């Protein structure tokens, strides 16, 4: 793993410029250009705030604001969108760049790093929009928000581990890509993002023990909605993240040479 990280560090300029070039090409023919990075998450936040709070009238126990459920959902989406985007990008990163892998000599770990970097930019744009919208909804940052960089780092690392595993497997068995799309949909609904943990029947709460994203989502809720430090331990998330990262790096290193031939 250390060798791969050193190789990525040597090519950090290439990785950074590739992230920038990706966004330039993405918005090159758009009238609003890079402003869409802000406009898209802003529209998403406004939909949650207006429809879910005003139309559905959803409420959260222990929170008096009429926008409480909207804030609850927004904070959960902040966690899930970062996780899911990294996994989805890494799922296809080697297949989408197969010709590049055959033509150029560079550390192959750079491709996943570029995907993670692009996802982080999108997530930071969403985070900035949320930080602007929250005071309008009556929620103000406090000292517990210092936890957010830690949670985001855990989310990125966990998603990278999962993404590397399925990305490598998808090269050799393309069914993995289709199966993973279904798994991510199921994963979203078994994670307490759109519903409070209190509504989950006791018989099903044991499944949350095997879902490393669940403690992360609940930690985001604690910080942003309930204005407190995370109430659950994150050690299980850390252990799962380290294990998945090590497995992902091992598979990537063992299969990187064969991937070029298969692609």
Q: What does this protein structure show overall?
A:
The chain is mostly helical. It has one domain (2-10, 34-262). The chain is 72% helix and 0% strand. The protein has eleven helices and no strands. Helix 3 runs antiparallel to helix 4, helix 4 (68-96) packs antiparallel against helix 6 (110-136) and helix 7 packs antiparallel against helix 10. The radius of gyration is 19 Å and the shape is globular. The two termini are 24 Å apart.
Features:
single chain, mainly alpha
Overview in brief:
By secondary structure, the protein is mainly α. The chain is built from eleven helices and no strands.
What's the helix and strand layout?
Blueprint: H1 2-10, H2 12-26, H3 36-55, H4 68-96, H5 98-103, H6 110-136, H7 148-172, H8 175-189, H9 202-205, H10 213-224, H11 235-262
What fraction of residues sit in β-strands? Answer: under 5%
- Helix-strand sequence: HHHHHHHHHHH
Please tell me the total number of domains: 1
Main pleated sheet: none
């Amino acid at each position: 793993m250390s060798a791969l990280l050193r190789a990525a560090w040597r090519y950090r300029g290439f990785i950074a410029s590739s992230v920038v070039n990706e966004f330039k090409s993405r918005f090159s023919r758009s009238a609003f250009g890079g402003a869409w990075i802000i406009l898209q998450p802003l529209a998403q936040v406004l939909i949650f705030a207006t429809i879910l709070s005003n139309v559905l009238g959803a409420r959260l126990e222990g929170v008096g604001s009429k926008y409480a459920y909207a804030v609850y959902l927004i904070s959960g989406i902040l966690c899930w969108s970062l996780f899911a985007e990294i996994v989805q990008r890494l799922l296809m990163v080697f297949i989408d760049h197969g010709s590049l892998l055959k033509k150029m000599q560079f550390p192959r770990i750079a491709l996943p790093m570029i995907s993670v970097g692009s996802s982080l930019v999108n997530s930071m744009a969403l985070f900035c929009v949320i930080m602007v919208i929250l005071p309008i909804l009556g929620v103000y940052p406090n000292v517990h928000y210092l936890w957010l960089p830690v949670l985001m780092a855990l989310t990125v690392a966990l998603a990278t581990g999962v993404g590397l595993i399925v990305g490598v497997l998808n090269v050799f068995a393309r069914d993995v890509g289709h199966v993973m799309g279904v798994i991510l949909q199921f994963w979203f609904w078994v994670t307490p993002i759109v519903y409070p943990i209190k509504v989950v029947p006791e018989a099903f709460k044991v499944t949350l023990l095997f879902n490393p994203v669940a403690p992360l989502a609940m930690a985001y809720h604690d910080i942003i909605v309930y204005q407190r430090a995370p109430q659950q331990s994150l050690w299980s998330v850390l252990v799962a993240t380290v294990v998945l990262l090590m497995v992902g790096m091992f598979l990537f290193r063992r299969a990187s040479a064969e991937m070029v031939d298969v692609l």
